[in-house]
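Hey all, quick one. A colleague (J.T.) asked me to put the magnesium ion job into the tracker so the inputs and the structure tokens live in one place instead of scattered across chat threads. No bug as far as I know, just bookkeeping. Sequence used:
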Amino acid sequence: VNAAVVTVGDELLDGRLADTNTSMLGARLRQLGLTIAAAHTSGDPEADIVLALRRALEDAEVVVVTGGLGPTEDDRTRHAVASLMGAELAFDEQAWQAIRVFIEKRGFPVHEANKRQALVPAGAEVLPNRFGTAPGFVATLDRPGGGCGRVFVLPGVPYEARGMFDEEVAPRIGQAGEPLLQRTLCFTGVTESVLGAKLATFMREGQAVRVGINAAWGFLRVTAQCAEAAALDAAAAEIKRIGARFLIGEGYVEIEELLAARLLEKGITVALAESITAGLAAARLGRVPGISAVLLEAVVAYANEAKQRRLGVAAELLEREGAVSEACARAMVEGLARESGARLTGAVTGIAGPGGGSDAKPVGLVWFATCFDGQVRALERRYGDVGRETIRQRAAVELLLLMLRALPPS
Ligand code: ATP
Ligand code: MG
């Protein structure tokens, strides 16, 4: 069964907003065993949405649409679907009650404009939305080449679209084919070309198990895909064996999930001291459910004075070496280990730019230190003047990676 995704919104076309709904829906549709034939993004005008829907229906029997269901005049998705159906928009009393309850529960006034969100094409089935105001709907439309297609229409807000897909759309589609079986193994301390060469036999075309390498900052993800579970497991075991020295975890995951998995497995407590990243690394760790079992604290020590007061970094050291130095990174991590009592600690200090660099200490210079059970290690990175946000994000990821590598092999 073929599927297509249609996302609606001028802001998706003119660079204001990156479209995340297409990949979110693509992954879920693939999991239900559908083939993703195409994805289209349409601007807000009704005629553009109609065009995108027609194209989608040319390729697919199942179409999922997000966006343009809001209460304002420029939200035209429901109109576009109705016009393709040759139907009128009808006011759905039950949907209206649900909208009112949702808004009132949050203590907001209900406006007349919200009534627009209770309009659905006559003949369509309403899909309740417990995540937001606008309900979705599903309609059956004629396909250009003959036959019928089902069009599921969801709000644009990503968590509403995701929740409604899982609760309302997926059960209506059902398992249409084999789900995609895949396993991902994560490696660090080895380059893509070296690991790729070791796995060359797997990566030739026409293999039953398809293997691909995807480089993330600081580590590599090797994903194996195959329709057969036994063949997939055998391949994963072999890939693990080949890369054993560099293996840091399993799953298509981020660095914080790899680190958290190791910490939680062993019950190792952790704390962070961040200057340049101002809490980015701790915020990533905080995304992992259950992290409170091991995460003790995170200190954002931005000013020199804060590094002294919160982490006990000596004033003379800061004076002599500067805040972006190996000595300061080491002193930060030692102070944090002492103060927090955590078994694993990490610290980072650097120059994010655009100003503040010098010949000796250019923008993009970052010092890291980790401490595990009293053993301190420091490392310097020079990312170059690649932009403030890139430097900060890279430094946050690298800190978590170095903390993972500070742990003994599992
Ligand atoms: P609402 O009823 O909340 O207005 P809507 O169905 O009208 O929902 P839009 O107005 O198109 O949806 O989008 C609402 C918000 O959801 C946008 O401001 C944007 O932040 C986000 N959004 C919409 N479409 C996408 C998308 N394809 N990818 C990521 N975010 C999106
Ligand atoms: Mg809107």
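Adding what we noticed when we looked at it: The chain has 15 helices and 17 strands. The chain has a mean pLDDT of 95.
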